[in-house]
Amino acid sequence: MINLELSMITSPQLRQKYLNFFQKNGHTIIPAASLIPQNDPTVLFTTAGMHPLVPYLLGERHPGGNRLADVQKCIRTGDIDEVGDAWHLTFFEMLGNWSLGDYFKKEAIEMSFEFLTKELNIPIEKLAVSCFAGEPENNIPRDDEVAGIWESLGLPKSRIQFLNRESNWWGPAGQTGPCGPDTEMFYWADEEAAPARFDPTDNRWVEIWNDVFMQYNKTENGKYEPLKQKNVDTGMGLERTVAVLNGCKSVFEIDEFKPIVEKIKKLAQTKDDIKSIRIVADHIRAATFILGDEKGIEPSNIEQGYVLRRLIRRAVRYGKMIGIDGIFTFKIAEVVIKQLADDYPELKQNKDFILEQLAREEEKFSLTLEKGLKEFEKISTQDISGHDAFVLFSTYGFPLEITTELATEKNLKVDEIGFRQEFAKHQELSRTASAGKFKGGLADNSEQTTKYHTAAHLLDAALRQVLGDHVFQKGSNITAERLRFDFSHSEKLTDEQKKAVEDLVNAQIQQNLPVTMAEMTLEEAKKIGALGVFESKYGEKVKVYTIGAAGNPFSREICGGPHVENIGGLGNFKITKEESSSSGVRRIKAILG
Ligand code: ALA
Counting Cβ atoms within 10 Å, is residue 279 exposed (0-12), middle (13-18) or buried (19+)? Predict the structure, then answer.
């Protein structure tokens, strides 16, 4: 029987319901962060709602308090091969609520349960959960506490399974950082009555929500030490939840996807290759969000630009497989923008850029796709060597993944290591591609990164003093080895200017100026002259970091932190490269020696 209550929820309604519920339960609703993480060297995209909150999970105070909730746009390309099935997406929206050292397991689960059963009216008969099975070798016990809480809420034992780390442990997203056992909530998405026993391998049980109990910090030497504050980090997949509540058989049938899929079907000649249609829909939607998120990202051969390129080119290839003629990706993006611009106004703001970039990249790839496919036919009489894969990449624009896919279809292998060696030889080494960075990672809050973060503020202030007030930060990227800083300025810096900037920064370091932080409203921050590029990210209250005396600071910026306490230990600041980044934007790379 179809439950009418359940069958009527749209994506905007679910977002609103979720935020209202957690607001009612004392959470501050915070604005979503960019898809491109700021100051996070280990990951290309925001992969979860917790990602922009890492400093707060580690103990920094959040201006919104210790109960937060939001809707966060996320990109995960780790599962890209599974896109095309009913439930996987590279771009998705995550509804999340957090406790920063406030409530823990009991309250978190009670709130999840109430939301599912009272707000969404899911009958308990359709729910099952998994809990962490424990890891004696790491002194982490089985999570009987969590199972007990579920039982106390009425879930039968047979619907509670204990699973291992692979299923029921979340984080750290990178090498180190906050992590912990989790409990995942599954919805029975089938007309048949749900079996009494929860079998996690039966894919009619669809995971919709995950409550993570972040009580450990994984250290560099692989140890799990208790975090000084116990946090809750939850993530509910918006598309999946809307799908199962509406009885859809896949995420591609929900309100926001349907018109996108219809458009693709209209353009295609074959309508029954569902997998290809889904891949095109997912990839163009993800590409639209990446292009719409930050004007700086264009298709390229490195970092985010390369992921973007892969998504677009893969979509083009699948589009051609279903017989779509001509340049088409922008036509689908138009539908994506129409569907989602109410909730993501940035898509509308950047519409021209999105459509133009898609068309340009598609045109470029279309010129070589056919020739490349012919070339592939020629060389694919045996396993593909690294050299041949590289030729397909450099001459015909085939991302390695496309070559690998084509090879797999013919039961052939590709020498991926050989490809990467060629790549490294011919190009600026793509750290991202070769280090598996696409899989995601966690903000690396190591000491060195923090130093570079503070140095970026010094650089920003010094550039403004030397070049003028037209200088504004346009982006930054920090690793433990260097900082990269983009800023508005049209001309190449002279050697004198570069030296003046370096000298100014080093003069401050020598004075060992203190770094202080104060929380205030955005208006107050503006009034005292704080610079802010991330102003929309932290909601009402913001943190302002000041370097130097409060009355006459060297630098003052709105920023989430973290920073060093005083700058004497930063070392010697040196600019290693100054170049154009895009029109009207220069890029500096600098190191601390
Ligand atoms: N961070 C958790 C996840 O992504 C909630 O599943």
Answer: buried
User: Using N-to-C axis directions, what is the helix angle for 329-340 and 258-267, rounded to 10°?
Assistant: 160
Q: Counting atoms of ligand 1 from 1, which one is nearest the CA of 50?
A: 1
Q: Which two tokens stand for residue 334?
A: 């138009």
| pLDDT value at residue 40 | 65
Quote the pLDDT of residue 535: 41
- pTM for this entry: 0.74
Q: How far is the CA of 296 from the centre of ligand 1 (A)?
A: 28
Paired with 171 in beta bridges are none
Q: With beta carbons less than 8 A apart as the criterion, state whether 212 and 172 touch.
A: no
Residue 147, CB-side half-sphere exposure with 13 Å CA sphere: 18
The confidence band for 440, taking pLDDT boundaries of 50, 70 and 90, is very low
Would the CB of 48 count as within 6 Å of ligand 1?
A: yes
What spacing in Å lies between the alpha carbon of 493 and ligand 1's midpoint? 44
Give the span between the Cα atoms of 458 and 10, in whole angstroms: 47
Q: What residue has token string 């990227």?
A: 477
Q: What is d(CA 172, CA 212) in angstroms, rounded to the nearest whole number?
A: 11
Packing angle, helices 144-152 and 105-114, rounded to 10: 40
Q: How far apart (Å, rounded) are the C-alpha atoms in residues 159 and 83? A: 28
pLDDT of 425 higher than 80 = no
- Among protein residues, the one with the nearest Cα to ligand 1's atom 2 is 235
Asked if residue 172 has its Cβ within 6 Å of ligand 1, the reply is no
Give DSSP secondary structure letters for 81-124: GGBTBSS--SEEEEEEEEEESS--HHHHHHHHHHIIIIIS---G
212 ligand 1 Cβ < 6 A: yes
Confidence tier at 540 by pLDDT (50, 70, 90) = low
First to last CA, the chain: 69
Are the C-beta atoms of 545 and 559 separated by less than 8 Å?
yes
> Which of 69-83, 297-311, 316-330, 427-441 has the highest average model confidence (pLDDT)?
316-330
CA distance 37 to 57: 16
What are the tens digits of pLDDT across the range 204-251?
A: 999 999 999 999 988 878 888 888 899 999 999 999 999 999 999 999
- Taking 60 as the threshold, does the pLDDT of residue 20 lie above it? yes
Q: Is the CB of 235 under 6 A from ligand 1?
A: yes
Q: Is 23 exposed, middle or buried (0-12, 13-18, 19+ CB in 10 A)?
A: middle
Ligand 1: residue whose CA is nearest its atom 3: 235
What is the enclosing helix (H) or strand (E) of 224?
Answer: strand 224-237
CB-based contact 280:264 (threshold 8 Å): yes
**Is the pLDDT score of 328 beyond 90?**
yes
Task: Give the mean model confidence (pLDDT) for residues 381-405.
Answer: 90
